[in-house]
Amino acid sequence: MQNRDTTMWAADALLPDGWARGVALAWDAQGRLTEVRRGVAAEGRPVAAGPVLPGLPNLHSHAFQRGFCGLTEYRAQSADSFWSWRDLMYRFAARLSPATLEAVATWLYVEMLEAGYTSVCEFHYLHHDVDGRPYADDAELALALLRAAERAGIGITLLPVLYQNSGFGGGVPSAGQRRFIRGTDNMLALLQRLKPVCDAQPGARRLGLAPHSLRAVTPEQLGVALAGLDALDPAAPVHIHIAEQVKEVEDCIAWSGQRPVQWLLEHAEVGPRWCLVHATHMTPEEARAAARTGAVAGLCPSTEANLGDGIFDMTNWRAGEGRWGVGSDSHAIVNAAEELMLLEYSLRFALRQRNVMATPEQPHVATAMTLAAVAGGAQASGRDIGGLCPGQQADFVVLDPHALPLAGLRAEDMLSAHVFGSHRTSALVETWVAGRRRVAGARHAAHGEAAAAFVAARSALIATTS
Prior knowledge:
Cofactor: Zn(2+)
Oligomer: single chain
GO molecular function, one term: metal ion binding
Low-confidence stretches: none
Domain Amidohydrolase-related: 52-436
Number of helices: 14
InterPro entries: Amidohydro-rel, HutF, HutF-like_N, Metal-dep_hydrolase_composite, Metal_Hydrolase, Metallo-dep_hydrolases
Protein name: Formimidoylglutamate deiminase
CATH architecture of the largest domain: Alpha-Beta Barrel
Number of domains: 2
Mean pLDDT: 95
Largest sheet: 5 strands, antiparallel
Shape: globular
């Protein structure tokens, strides 16, 4: 399903500075916006079915984890936590084949497009065969993810993960981590292998690096990896899990005398190319200092709630003028609007206030959050997907004005109802990526086929782990 139109007119569209009426969009053959004019008539252009929003980047994804969504919601020990969930996750990761991964990822990316995401940052740490040995082609599983993204039609920032240790100070990896482990030289060789593959589709793909966490990479190897990445692409995105769990903070203090974010800021050149994923447990001083570096906070509200992580310190992050975006991480939920809702609601719980994420410029909280998440997600992706303005990719979604929660409302109120009143359903009718329509009538062309392949893959996965 690929519409070849190169223009569209919207009665209402959300531009980087807010809502505009009578907006004409035009893009070139590469899917890059060449014109965004407001206050004009349709004049024969194709007319959008409803308000047009910028596509939301999903800045943190572990695609394979969609395969066991819902299957860890039982008590495995007296006090379940992230760490007991991780043990269950390792069991599933140990059984995935390249074909299974590709089937799961293809369905997930179709789901993302139907749910309002137009690009994904894939934090890819499942590298090797089930026994921990490399595949004949060391890039086998990374290529499976790129094929899945291409088939679904979603833009991707591929972030191969450097994972070497089981804990701070170079702890020996566990058996459950054997498929993740790479030496630094081996990782840099993988990046060199993947770079021309990604560069061949510059609008659709970008390559970066993800040191998994401070507990999984030693300081020495972190430095070597970042230097190697700089030699390959000094602007490449760098993503890292940090300060997700209280135990992680405690272990980091025991190892170094410093908290994780504090240590990273003092030992690495953290800046705008960095995405600090979760960053849940920071002191106010850490939050403001990290925000001032220009790094993006990668927030995953549904996963952070599912795993019992805690609530991000948005107050101090915003005090440092920090940028942020959202991701679906373990994919307990795949719904862009719901991630925004959960983020706002978590802050309402913590602060006992309403409309926390509204701004003086954008008093409608859903509008303010959408614009912030698009800008932060684009920065973390390292791609030109920062909204509806010339030079950016024509990634956008169209709201369904006939969906019951939205019907009869003004455009800004439709977006509010989409985020806060759609009751776990999507009020999106179309999704466009690089000027091509990937979802029409709220359904992706590959929906049925991809769903069937996912169910078969998941059934096989469950059979081998039960």
